[in-house]
Amino acid sequence: MRCDLPALIIIDMQKAMANPHAGHRNNPEAGECIERLLAAWRAADAPVVHVRHMSRTPGSLFWPGQAGAQFQEAFAPLPREHVVEKNVPDAFVHSGLERWLHVRGIERVVMAGVSTNNSVEGSARSAGNLGFDTTVVADACFAFACTDYAGQARSADEVHAMALANLAADYATISDSASVLHALFDAT
């Protein structure tokens, strides 16, 4: 594994996220973008981390043992790739992820997955706060429509854009998959 390259962190690409009950989402091409990123990282022998949410709420689509908690087939980890399980949105909380990255001398991370305003944003905030050079790949993430605190319905595109704006302010560089892949190939 080439630890001079950034780690690709794929967040919560589990079967539950493909369930229609998850809600209306944006960015339908995000899965294909993540697949291209994963293929490139594997070809470069760069570090890959798969994050899996394991809910503590009985009946959740992410409850351990439920089909929804399993990785989608396209994102199933290879034996050499690291898997992190989390119970809260932030992949760094009680998971050992920070230590795993530090032990390998990895200082840069690239994040993709779901949902932009929840687990991706929470994890990217921590990564930035912990001193990692963090990139979030906008077209390799997606969000779901929701109602804001004031009761206003927000589209998935609005939720996604606001989360990316929050991250760009202080925590991460926001990029697209073509630019991230170009940078990776320039480094290899």
Automatic annotation (TrEMBL):
<protein>
    <submittedName>
        <fullName>Cysteine hydrolase</fullName>
    </submittedName>
</protein>
<dbReference type="InterPro" id="IPR000868">
    <property type="entry name" value="Isochorismatase-like_dom"/>
</dbReference>
<keyword id="KW-0378">Hydrolase</keyword>
<feature type="domain" description="Isochorismatase-like">
    <location>
        <begin position="7"/>
        <end position="178"/>
    </location>
</feature>
<dbReference type="InterPro" id="IPR050272">
    <property type="entry name" value="Isochorismatase-like_hydrls"/>
</dbReference>
<dbReference type="Pfam" id="PF00857">
    <property type="entry name" value="Isochorismatase"/>
</dbReference>
<dbReference type="InterPro" id="IPR036380">
    <property type="entry name" value="Isochorismatase-like_sf"/>
</dbReference>
<dbReference type="GO" id="GO:0016787">
    <property type="term" value="F:hydrolase activity"/>
</dbReference>
